[in-house]
Design brief:
456 residues; Chitinase A, domain 3; globular; PPIase_PpiC; chaperone; peptidyl-prolyl cis-trans isomerase activity; SurA_N; Trigger_fact/SurA_dom_sf
């Protein structure tokens, strides 16, 4: 699979943050209650229906005409090449069955982008060539490419600058359309903000969850198929090769798809019952599901949790010294274990941070200082260890035969103050953004429904 890059900002993150894949390594699937409620509403669909004919409406060739705008097979292929570049992979590494499914996803994405650009033009919004050039130059500069080098990398990946320009145009045009036509219609009253602040004050100490969600719609006819698809997705997440947001952007049918399924910080009381129950039982870094919810299934990933208005010890700022002993090339696992044991024995001779450099010289270790690390910035395995250390103590050795062995010495810790409640303007901004997103999703659904789309 390849991550569908939704925006220019997403492309930048995808190019820069491949290490996020490690987040999904700690994952767990769990069983689910019985089938969800039907979502057919007022549609009159027989329970025991019979399909007449062999046409599968989901089988599409990767070309289309959208309100007289042509999307070619080349457009689809070049966008896939762009995604491959963003995810540091190649088309040859994508299995044929996944490539076919990806082409259909890309086609749907290109149709949406076409509709967004067309609708923006009705509002007299046009993105100039100079604006797109500036955006492309910014992307190239951010990652150390010249403009020509970026073009070369795109061509190597089977893409082109034209494909990138189209994505940038859609992103910028839709953002400006929302600011011009949607945001002026969104209003958040002062009393509403005051009410939320009052409830937050009363809720101090309540646990909050930073969640990501993948939502898959299902009805009576396809619930088993959707359930199986969700299980397959969880299995892929458990492999740890791609982060959770990869799957959320590709497959989620919720409005949070565009932001990688990010629900933000929420309290259990604001979640549907099944999700609230799951969140309260989850551990940080855990993935659970499929969870039956009204209208489909959800997969949840718990990024973090905290108590509202309370200080989180993981926000403590640390002063650290890191000792590193590098191993020669070809070091075996037993040899690494022996060197690590010797390293651990040496660490026990450290008597405060003032002796670190002296001890390091006896074993040829490198020493690096850092006074700005927060506990939560460290890998989860080290966070609990660091929180239990006293100043001057060292962590156990950690590393690998390839990279050598390391240890951290705690030289100081500035504990966080009690957490502050959000300001009124922050709450107002959040509410406005949520409502803009909902209206944007509704508008895009209307555009899809009214569009004349001919598949070729």
């Amino acid at each position: 699979m390849i991550h569908l890059v939704r925006s220019t900002a997403t492309l930048r993150r995808a190019l820069a943050c491949s290490a996020l894949a490690a987040v999904s390594a700690v994952a767990m699937a769990q069983s689910v209650p019985e089938a969800p409620q039907s979502t057919t509403g007022n549609l009159d669909i027989p329970a025991n229906l019979q399909i007449f004919g062999k046409l599968d409406p989901n089988v599409r060739k990767p070309t289309a005409i959208v309100n007289d705008t042509v999307i070619t097979g080349t457009d689809v292929d070049q966008r896939i090449g762009l995604l491959a570049l963003a995810n540091k992979t190649t088309l040859a590494q994508i299995p044929p069955d996944q490539l076919n499914a990806l082409k259909l996803q890309v086609l749907r994405q290109l149709i949406d982008e076409t509709l967004e650009i067309q609708e923006a033009k009705t509002a007299e919004i046009t993105i100039t060539a100079n604006e797109m050039n500036q955006s492309i130059a910014g992307i190239a500069q951010r990652f150390g490419y010249s403009r020509d080098q970026l073009r070369t990398e795109l061509r190597k990946a089977g893409s082109s600058e034209a494909s990138l320009r189209r994505q940038i145009e859609a992103e910028l045009a839709w953002q400006r359309y929302l600011r011009k036509r949607i945001e002026p219609l969104v209003n958040v009253g002062d009393e509403e903000v005051k009410g939320i602040l009052s409830r937050l004050e009363q809720a101090k100490g309540t646990q909050e969850f930073n969640l990501r969600e993948i939502y898959l719609a299902a009805n009576d006819a396809d619930q088993q198929q959707v359930f199986a698809k969700a299980r397959e997705m969880i299995a892929e997440i458990q492999k740890g090769q791609q982060p959770f947001e990869y799957f959320a952007r590709n497959f989620s049918e919720a409005s949070t798809r565009a932001v990688g399924g990010d629900l933000g910080w929420v309290r259990a009381s604001t979640l549907p019952g099944p999700l609230a129950e799951a969140a309260q039982q989850m551990q940080t870094g855990q993935v659970v599901g499929p969870i039956a919810t009204p209208g489909g299934f959800s997969i949840l990933y718990l990024v973090d949790k905290r108590q509202l208005g309370a200080a989180d010890p993981r926000d403590a700022k640390l002063s650290l010294k890191q000792l590193t002993v590098r191993f020669p090339a070809g070091t075996t696992e037993p040899q690494a274990q022996g060197r690590a044991a010797e390293f651990a024995k040496t660490l026990r001779t450290i008597q405060g941070c003032g002796t670190v450099e002296k001890v390091a010289k006896t074993i040829g270790a490198e020493v690096v200082d850092n006074d700005t690390v927060r506990v939560r910035d460290l890998p989860p395995q080290l966070q609990d260890i660091i929180l239990k250390l006293q100043v001057g103590q060292a962590t156990p050795p950690f590393g690998s035969p390839q990279e050598g062995v390391r240890a951290l010495v705690l030289c100081g810790r500035d504990d966080p103050k009690a957490g502050d409640l959000p300001r009124a303007d922050q709450i107002q901004g959040q509410l406005e953004q949520q409502r803009v997103n909902l209206r944007a999703q509704s508008k895009l659904r209307d555009l899809r429904r009214d569009a004349v789309i001919e598949y070729r």
